[in-house]
Write the structure tokens for this entry.
Amino acid sequence: MVGARLAAVEGLVRELLKEEAPSRIAALTEELFQAAGSISEEDGSAAEVEEGAVSLWNWAVTKHTGSVVNDEQRAKLRFVACRLVCLCEGSDPPEGTIRRQILMCMKTGKGWIDIGKADLADGFLEIAMSSIEKLYAKLLKGSDGEADIHVHKADVEKNLFKVLSYQAESAVAQGDFQKAVMCVQRCKDMLMKLPKETCYLSILCYNFGVETYEWKRYEQSSFWLSQSYDIGKMDMKYSVGKQMQAKVLRLLATAYFEWDCNLYLDKALKAVSLANQENLHPAGVFLKVKILLKSGASDEDISSAVAEFLHHEMSLDFCLNTAKLLLDHGRESVGFDFLKSVPERFESSPDLGKITLLHVEFLLQNKRELLAKQKVEEIIIGHYTGKQLLPEALNRLHIILWDRAAKHYEAKSYSEALHWYNYSVSFYTPGQIDQNLAKLQRNMASCYLHLKQVDKAKEAVKEAERCDPNSIFTKFCVYKIAVMEKDTDKAVEAVTEMGKLAEKSSQHEDKLRVDENTGTNLLSLAAQIALENEQQVVAIKALEYLSEHLQDCRQLFAALKCLVRLMLSKFMAENEEKRDEDINSMLTYLTLAHKRLAESFTEEKFTGDMRILEAHWFRKVAWNLAVQFRGCPEKMRDFFLLSFKLSQFCPSDKAVLIAQKTCLLMAAAVDLEMGRQQVTPSEQTELLTQALQHLQACKEIWKVLKLTGDFAKDPTDTLLLLYEFEARSKLNDPTLHNLMESVWEQPQTEVKTLEIIASLAMESPARYPVLCKKALKSALNLHRKQPVVDAVKFSKCLHSLINLSLPTGLTDLDACVLQEVWHYFEDALSVVSSTDAYPETEILWLMTRAWNTGIFQYTVGKYKEAEQWCGLGMRLLNHLGSLKKSYEGHMIGLYSEVLDKLDRAKRFLPNEEE
């Protein structure tokens, strides 16, 4: 009877055996593995289940061979098949079934071990062990005599040996040393009956030794390696061989050496000596020398150890490593003697130069520089007499020579550094183009400069330019020489080329990539050199390029501050004509500062406090420059706007808000002033629009600022009104009247403000006579309300109002207009009559305008109106002072004529009916 769970597993097996798609196979394998883990004997069994399990086992083997399933999937499928077979075992299975179960359990357990899941193997290995016992009992039960018993026992012991070895593997993997030892010991006891397994067990113990060595469990490792060696000696016929035995002993010696060299020194030496006896190998000799050196053995003992392999075939690299080992441990005598003996053995080797190089290195390491020089000179002679080093060795030699030169350079022994660099130059042919040669020449140029040998430095740089003309390092050398010679033009040219090279992420394909940090570092150094040599112009150019490439905000702002200070000092020293270019440069620096402050929010190392400090510094500079260049309105505006933008990175306290308000007001004022100049209509429109934008921003700031204190005496409201009125009136803005409505409603508007509004309302291209007249009337009303009328101001305001209402040259005047203007004249006469402060020129102007208006009326036959206006003129004449006599006679005569004409006209008029 098959249970539901077992039936489900059987169904999954059938589906899997038909499946071909790898992804579906993987999914079904996982399902089967999970399902098989939960079934038990209670779920029943059947012949079909057993048959399916065997088919699944064989399918897994086939698919694994074809790489359809991986090792882990195969292990899981074996697990499923084995579980199903075990369920179908029955109470008294036949021999074939038991043997199959033993095989399947062993392979399933081994599969789990091989994929690193040894804990899952133990159960199957236990089942295998139990099945072996069942098999042995069944075989004994059916045996006919002693001979049969021996045959059956031998048959069973092979499987038992395998299961025990697998259990040992599992125990080692799980860190159960004692269990592993017990299993291996049982296997070892069986070797007398199974001698062919000697090699297998020896290698198994070696593998255990390797694993535990890698885990640094040296005690366990030494045990397993000793076991491996001992087992390997048990039966020479089936031994692993001398090479393998030597390998085991070398690792054993290494384990003792790394475990505790002082405590297990003798054991390590004994093991390595045995290894060398078994099979002399370079690794064994090297290890022995290494152990002896660590133990502090005498030179004689070490020489003796080295002599062991002098008569054997050893590679050149091995000999070099041995010599290096000796010299690294300070055994110069043995090491150098050994080095001297090596060339004889490798005379025909193309790698012979490696020996000489090692010799040179250790001579230098042991401060025998003179002997090292002799060796290098021998190599140079050999280079030109047919004994050239191989390219790899020659490159290594250049590194050694440059390293020695660099050490002398750091110690300021520039002549000695040149000596070693010249050795390197000796290996290059005349005219050769090589980037390393360019670098070499640059290094030599630096030495010559320190030695004040400028001509030789120039020659070296010239060679460097020939080899690598597009190198930023070469340009830097040219720059240093130019600064040293105070050749400003040449220095500026060189630093400009450096800046251009730094801009490129890479040079041509056959050139070395220029690291971005290298470019900025060199430009920074260039600026420093220029400043140290008091070459301001050159320093400015270097800092300009540097500021374009620096990514670090703190470094950038330091460079920009330095640039600003240098440029400010330059301003002071030069005349007005040369300042324009420098002003533009200053604007560029401050603009860059603003740009990088805006970008700095993403840089973690640049804190908010740092940003605020930098913003304050640059905004104040921009403010001071704006004030300094008030003679140049456009630049002044640009600096004020920059100051405002920079201040936006600062906390909005009262001082900053006042500064922002002032910056925007000044910028708007400049735009308006420039708009009054002779500019094209489109330019004027642009300027006025900009002014409005500044004013709008200023209004918002002013609203906030007024909340912080008392600003009753502050003229900002008035300025905002006047500036906005001018901009909107000249732009013919339809919202202008809305703006003025708020003005008419304000009782506290000053006379001066109204008079300016009136003036602006008629200033081209604006033309708003109605607004102008309304403003002038309001101003006159305010004048009248004063306790004492200011006659001068009153006269000017009235003058403007009369001029606007009674334009000069008009011939056809409406009676209403004349009536309106008549009232203005009466206002004037009233003030003139009440004070002697009314300007006489204004009285004369009023008199003239009234008289001329009367004469005009006279000429068109309007005698009554003529008499009225001329009479007004005569009344005003009476208030003239010194100028009265000049006009009196002429005006009295004409006035009499007007009156006479008026009388005659009246006589011809018909009488009114009564």
Summary: The longest helix spans residues 146-173. The two ends are 149 Å apart (CA to CA). The CA atoms of residues 343 and 352 lie 7 Å apart.
